[in-house]
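Extended Data, panel c. Modelled sequence:
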Amino acid sequence: MQPTFYDVNLGSNDRNSEIVLYSDHCEDEYYNQASLSYSDGGAPESFASWFATWNYTEIRSSFNGSTYDVTSVDWEAAQWGGRPWTRMAPTIDAITGTFADKTNDSRYDGTFVTTYRGNWVKAGIADEILYNTNGLPVRNGDAILTFLDEEPATPIDYGSGSGNSNIGAGTLPGRADWVVGPYGISRIVYPELWKIGTYRTDNGSGLGQPNAALTRPWNIAKFSELYLIAAEAVVMGATPQSGYSARELINVLRARAGKWRWDNNGNSEKIVDHSAAIVAATPADIDIITFWKNVPVNIMVKDTAGLTWFVPKNGLNWQEPM
């Protein structure tokens, strides 16, 4: 397995040793069977990440701190960005429940984009400084919009309508970035999927080709998922070898989730190991409900259709939160 969850899904680390099977796509129009400058979203092009990408280019900042009419986050062919289609959004329960531990567990940070940073210089805007919420200055690379991990002690002021942010985001005292709490997420504004996001090597110093078909492989099977298959077999009655109980198998993935080398949304190095805390929090007895609560956090996005069929078949009722 890869040393961190982040490494499994990092675009520059595609086709890594953890991936058992993938449908390949690449930066070659002949082999990709798709345009690398503009895609119309048809077969055989790959464009899966667009569905879960909202129109982040609607975020507004200001030249002068009073009139908010500047696009400060533009379309970019980057893993945090890509082409917006706004077709699917994560549920609030996924943000608050499935990924409840955002401090120790790196899988939330390695799945979603929660910080959108200024890139207006790449769009040709020469101004070094723009003004964002609370009239505070921001520079290229600074956070323009942040989806908060938790609801803050100080209530977020969302104002009315779309507000100066143009997307209905709120403000907190002293912060220059627009903010949205977990319960402020909507079907229009939400954390998009980083793990399957756009990745290109030919952007240069510009925005690249965010409208092009995707050039990343689509992962079908990972070695790490075999631990989940084995754990389910034990839960359903298989006799495990010593050291391979359902809890021990699941804890292989949970321990890896506690190891950080990069704070994706903080855009900074983070060498931390919380694996002991995560392993200690694993229930002593793993039943089918506990097992399925550990599945979505590992394969969120990859097999949603499969989950909707297999969960009830394996004994988890629809009323039991995952």
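The CA atoms of residues 94 and 100 lie 8 Å apart. This feature is highlighted in the accompanying rendering.
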